[in-house]
């Protein structure tokens, strides 16, 4: 089975053909935004980090920014720096360059102020956009899809309808040879034994259990109560009582296949099939991590309703809550409430999700894209100094 | 997940059911579990998506949904009573049980 996508110089395939402007530091975010303002086909990342960071924290910011640049949904990249930041534009550009797409960088201090930087940036992206427009879509096997799965604003319908439906779609993609990323490690608490049991090797199963143990230990070390954050107040109002209940409902979305690999935040999978990426439960942190890891498309389940989108990828929203699907119809792409009514099986709903994913991968706009919703947030793991 | 049911029992090991429509205190619902149809009198109002007990659950016992423990009770819970944060606690990711 194929979708219609864009072939990249390194052999990977994208579902979109964006020109991406990356501010390597918060100081150049304004210029990056101005460069892409009102320019169709160009997007920027609202990056608020990139300076006064050290060690793994700096590395994670760099890896995430570069991961967006290398993502196959991106045709070409302009990195904009200020000039004195500790994550220079040149370094980010150099991390992207080896994959063979066009990458440029400019610095506000070197170009001589914001206005000149915006003018120069606009000239560069215009050239890139002209080249991007000449690249046609072509048939690409579904096995090249890396699907990011996510749930947010969960309620009781998430565990009963939308997550099982997404799980059925995940299974169809794995059967077609593709890759599915499950993330939000904190939302596996209470369900980790079920996932560990499905791991390809004992070692991978142990990695799952170790990750959960680490997050639990970190939560306890804060001296705070994880219940203040997870389940969130809206989850509780929607009938979810504990983190275990949320997790057991949450884990359905990855489907039923063998867990092939556990990868750190914003790293690309090295295997096909079902993959676990270690991320927080924070919706945008995890979406950002999966996109930086090379996912080209996301399916996002919600009960309460969320507007989440990505700057470089379609995010398909599905809900099992009929009222949410109605009230937030500008945000929700698919309603799977029929599952709860007994009018549709989980498998049938999963096929609808799968078909929608292929249509969107081939060019149909998701609602979050129509709204211009472009969320971006790097999982910060250290202090700014 | 039968057609006109107002409640869902996900796994036959579960000791709670989930309401898929708002249910009033004093109302009677029919629940299909382990192949048997049972009538349960609701002791509390159950909001849509919320849970009630299918049987007596002792204090400190596991609450089971999806066939797995989702937390422990902080008080004895009667059949037909609302099961939520007021009488269930999770011990995961935090110290003690306070």
Give a written overview of the molecule.
The complex is a heterodimer of chains A (385) and B (98). Chain A is α/β, with parallel strands linked by helices. Chain A folds into two domains: 18-134, Rossmann fold, CATH 3.40.50; 141-370. Chain A has 14 helices and 14 strands. A seven-stranded parallel β-sheet of chain A has the order 10-11-9-8-12-13-14, sandwiched between helices. In chain A, strands 4-3-5-6 form a four-stranded parallel β-sheet, with helices on both faces. A three-stranded antiparallel β-sheet of chain A has the order 2-1-7. In chain A, helix 1 (29-36) crosses helix 5 (114-133), helix 2 packs across helix 3 and helix 2 packs across helix 11 (283-292). Chain A is globular. Chain B has 98 residues and is mainly beta. Chain B contains no helices and nine strands. The radius of gyration of chain B is 13 Å and the shape is globular. Chain A binds chain B through residues 155-157, 159-160, 186, 189-191, 194, 215-216, 219-220, 223, 225-227, 230, 236, 238-239, 241-245, 248-249, 303, 339-343, and chain B through 1-5, 8, 10, 18, 20, 47-51, 63, 65-66, 68-71, 83-85, 88-90, 92-95.
Gist of the model:
The complex is a heterodimer of chains A (385) and B (98). Chain A is α/β, with parallel strands linked by helices and 385 residues long. Helices cover 39% and strands 17% of the residues of chain A.
């Amino acid at each position: 089975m194929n979708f219609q996508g864009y072939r990249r110089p390194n052999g990977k395939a994208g579902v979109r053909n964006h020109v991406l402007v990356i501010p390597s530091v918060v100081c150049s975010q304004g210029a990056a935004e101005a460069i892409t303002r009102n320019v169709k086909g160009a997007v920027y990342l609202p990056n608020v980090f990139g300076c006064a960071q050290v060690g793994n924290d700096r590395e994670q910011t760099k890896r995430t920014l570069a991961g967006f640049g290398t993502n196959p949904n991106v045709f070409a990249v302009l990195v904009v720096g200020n000039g004195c930041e500790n994550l220079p534009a040149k370094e980010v550009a150099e991390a992207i360059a080896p994959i063979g797409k066009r990458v440029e960088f400019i610095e506000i201090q070197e170009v001589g102020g914001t206005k000149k930087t915006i003018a120069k940036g606009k000239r560069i992206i215009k050239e890139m956009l002209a080249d991007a427009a000449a690249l046609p879509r072509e048939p690409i096997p579904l096995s090249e899809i890396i699907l990011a799965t996510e749930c947010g604003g969960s309620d009781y319908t998430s565990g009963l309808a939308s997550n099982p439906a997404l799980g059925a779609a995940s299974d169809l993609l794995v059967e077609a040879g593709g890759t599915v990323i499950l993330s939000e490690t904190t939302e596996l608490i209470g369900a980790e034994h079920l996932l560990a049991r499905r791991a390809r090797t004992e070692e991978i199963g142990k990695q799952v259990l170790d990750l959960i143990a680490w997050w639990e230990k970190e939560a306890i070390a804060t001296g705070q109560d994880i219940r203040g954050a997870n389940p969130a107040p809206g989850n509780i109002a929607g009938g979810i009582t504990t983190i275990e209940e949320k997790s057991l409902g949450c884990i359905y979305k990855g489907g039923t296949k063998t867990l092939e690999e556990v990868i750190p935040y914003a790293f690309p999978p090295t295997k096909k099939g079902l993959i676990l990426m270690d991320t927080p439960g924070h919706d945008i942190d995890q979406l950002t991590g999966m996109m930086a890891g090379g996912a080209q498309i996301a399916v996002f389940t919600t009960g309460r309703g969320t507007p989440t989108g990505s700057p470089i990828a379609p995010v398909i929203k599905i809900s099992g809550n009929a009222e949410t699907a109605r009230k937030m119809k500008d945000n929700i792409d698919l309603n799977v409430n029929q599952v709860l009514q007994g009018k549709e099986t989980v498998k049938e709903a999963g096929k609808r999700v799968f078909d929608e994913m292929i249509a969107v991968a081939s060019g149909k706009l998701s609602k979050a894209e129509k709204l211009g919703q472009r969320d971006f947030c790097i999982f910060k793991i250290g202090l700014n100094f | 997940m039968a057609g006109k049911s107002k409640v869902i029992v996900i796994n036959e090991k579960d000791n709670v059911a989930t309401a898929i429509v708002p249910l009033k205190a004093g109302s009677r619902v029919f629940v299909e579990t382990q192949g048997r149809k049972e009538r349960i009198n609701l002791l509390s109002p159950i909001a849509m998506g919320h849970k009630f007990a299918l049987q007596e659950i002792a204090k400190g016992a596991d609450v089971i949904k999806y066939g797995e423990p989702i937390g422990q009770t902080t008080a004895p819970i009667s059949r037909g009573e609302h099961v939520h944060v007021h009488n269930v606690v999770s011990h995961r990711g935090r110290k003690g049980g306070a």
